[in-house]
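hi!! sorry for the late reply, been swamped w classes. u asked for the two structures so here they r. pasted raw, havent cleaned anything up. first the sequence of the first protein and right below it the tokens
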Amino acid sequence: MTYTAWIILTAALVGLSCSLIGVFLILRKMAMMADAISHTVLLGIVVAFMMTRELNGPHMLIGAIIAGLLTALFVQWLNQLNIEQHASIGIVFTTLFAIGVILISTSVGNAHLDVQHALMGEITFIPWNTMTLPIVGQVPEATAILALVLIIVLICIIFFYKEWKITSFDPALAASLGIPVVFLHYLFMSLVSITTVASFDAVGAIMVVAMLITPAASAYLWTDKLSMMLVISALFGVVSAVGGYYIAAWIDTSISASMAFATGIVFLCSFIGSPKHGLLSKLNRPTRVVS
């Protein structure tokens, strides 16, 4: 494959994984949690590096997952203290992210780990860091990891589809049916953390947030059926990744930022043109006259 093809494939894998997870974030009204976890995983990555002094390895993923779970636990704990969920997310998000930034500035030293890299990523470097896989041969390491994460996400969604569907729409009913709501919640938070950290190095936090929220929000305007929403969200994620790359090539700017911008264009088109919830369809509906 060509250099450009690897970049587009990597971005498409990010779009697929994040957009599928994002559907359940939107349905659970936890969109801001995506923003929080995509930033607080920085703390887990920094702490893992400080303990091992290595930038590559499973310890980085473990540290990020722990940070994501801690974020969910702290938000839940503050929520139980009668602090509103959005306020709880804001408190935990800013505090843990600030600690991560401080540790980078004071304790990381000369390692290639900085705030700008964490926020924006550098997808153009992806094709150079390769690994050898059986049969496939040489592939970029980030692409292989993202492909594995996508497989894990798909398996979890297929295996727990009914349970997550019920817990997303009616957690009280799910609990009364004996479904382990708490376990599924933290399993879902683990998936969000895994997906986020797998995408983190390649595309940065900005694109991760955009891909987690915007394709799913766009798909929500097109359908009320969960299965179709997952398919449409995944399609929008891939379209945004591919379209964003060509926007970046056209105006010579950041690829990750352009892909995030492309998700906004997709949402705007959905907001205007959706046949059921779009602006044009609402304007064209006949006004009911009450006699």
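now the second protein. again sequence first, tokens right under
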Amino acid sequence: MENIALIESFSEFKDDKLIDRVTLMAILEEVFRNALKKRFGSDENFDIIINPDKGDLEIWRNRIVVADGEVEDENEEITLTEAQKIEPDFEIGEDVSEEVKLIDLGRRSILALRQNLIAKIHEHDNTNIYKQFKDLIGEIYTAEVHHIRHRAVILLDDEGNEIILPKDKQIPSDFFRKGENVRGIIENVDLKGNKPSIIMSRTAPEFLEKLFEQEIPEVFDGLINVKKVVRVPGEKAKVAVDSYDDRIDPVGACVGMKGSRIHGIVRELGNENIDVINYTDNTQLFITRALSPARITSLKIDDERKHVEVFLKPEEVSKAIGKGGFNIRLAGQLTGYEIDVFREGVEEDVELTEFADEIDAWVIEEFSKAGLDTAKSVLEQDVDDLVKRTDLEEETINEVRRILKEEFEQ
């Protein structure tokens, strides 16, 4: 009776965890054999018969009958006297099969059996979850906000699997509420101990690429190919697209009438400014398109060094650089070329590094991060704009401008 009650309680796991019958039987037998090894020193002479569907369990120990007083291994041998208590007809040298009741293993062993079974079931469950999400790396996934921590948001999917969205994988403008559904891509899956660690990302370029695939039918159908995606999460992105059908305008199809198709993607990414660009193998044309909305006058390309000098009219320079230097930085990442901007028609300019004796190096570095490497590039900008584009105080900027102006007044 104890056997049946115990196996019935174990069989509940089959329904809860959706484990197939063969796997459950294998796990059950492994757990029982481990218990027999601890109790008797070996499990090799035991037969275990399990039927989890009916709740049947039988354990039989097989021993050889030996003369009284000649038992060397109590687990594998039984005296004639003890054997004849089981069946009077037994003789020396015969095999005896005796049923072992679970209660004979002791209460503590039965508790350990249940704990080991739970651990094995969880281990099997976690292995399956790991394999499932390993196959989903790079794919969009949706889960619900369960807990908000300082360094991460903990999500749960419909199956109760825990997914981690770290702070550095969130778009800066992201704000989540408990119970809210969140989309991202599965970026990484690891096994920490026996528990899978599933990491989601909303900042990866692949997330934007998958959003295009999900939201734009021509991309999903393979008529439009997303060649490359670069982005500053929450700020700006550039997406190069190409079409296998000359009748399809890939940019127009992705953007939609009055931006109708791309609007949902922009909203999902916290109003990230997305430039969709026609891909081309023509390097000069591709760089020109990548620096949009600036209009380029001419280019000087060094393919060996992957470097390009871009010449523009002075009023186009700020457009090429863009807010925070994002436009020129992303254009470089998209094309694979280091881009230097030069003002066409400007008679003379001076690199900021030439003023190192008067301006601190870290201040020059701040201007450089914003794409401003020359004296005139700084002087042409509005002070308020410089404050926004750099981490410099207005007082510092005004002092730098004073030093630069003196250079041109001499």
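hope this helps!! also noticed smth abt the second:
The chain has a mean pLDDT of 85.
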